[in-house]
Please model this.
Amino acid sequence: MKKQRLKAVALSTVLSAGALIGSVAQADQTLNSILQTGEQKVKVAQASQQKIDKIAEQTSSLLNDFKVVNKQIEGLRVYNSQLEKQIANQLEVISQLNESIDNVTVMERQIQPLVMKMLDGLEQFVALDVPFHKEEREKRLEMLRNNQERADISVSEKFRQVLEAYKIESEYGRKIDTYEDTLQVDGQEREVNVLRIGRVALMYQTKDTELSGAWDQRQQAWVQVDSGEYRSAILKGIRIAKKQASIDVLKLPVLAPEAAQ
Model:
């Protein structure tokens, strides 16, 4: 009887232990399932975080690109605004140039007659002036006259040439000059040295210094002067003009000016 009870207790213990072992095994399976599920969630979360990080990087890059493009657009707006102002100014300049071109055409029609009048006046002045460098001055006038008929020379250049001739004639009146020439002296041609003191006096002296003369503007002719009185002065004046002597006071045959009418 006692042995049967022990067997029953032992059997009961064995059954309890088996049930416990089964419960533990089932718990282990449940725990493993939970852990696997947790790992899967962690992996999913990591993958999602990577996607989020990637999207954040792309968003940041797009934002930077947007900012750069915005700056470029703003710069282009300023540049376009400046170009519009420049174009407006250029159109105004073009309008002014067109107006100037129209005015130039009118001015050319007015300048040409003025140039001709100036040239006529210069020719008359040279004809009435003291006859120094006569051939040179007449050639210059002839060149200017011929240039007026040339189509390859602009009106402005013709005007400049005439002004240059006026300047040359003006400078003659402020300089001392000497040159060689051939004049009629005592009825025969003689080689002489001509001395010009501006337009105040024009004199000559033969190469041998024996004969001297001066231009008489009232008579429009050469007249002989006292060689004894003016010979040395004229000779020294010629040397001064050639820069062979220093400037000095000279006693020369200067015709007294006429009284104004």
Observations:
- The beta strands are 176-185, 188-197, 201-206, 212-216, 221-224.
- Residues 2-128 form the longest helix (127 residues).
- The mean pLDDT is 82.
- The chain is about 65% helix and 15% strand.
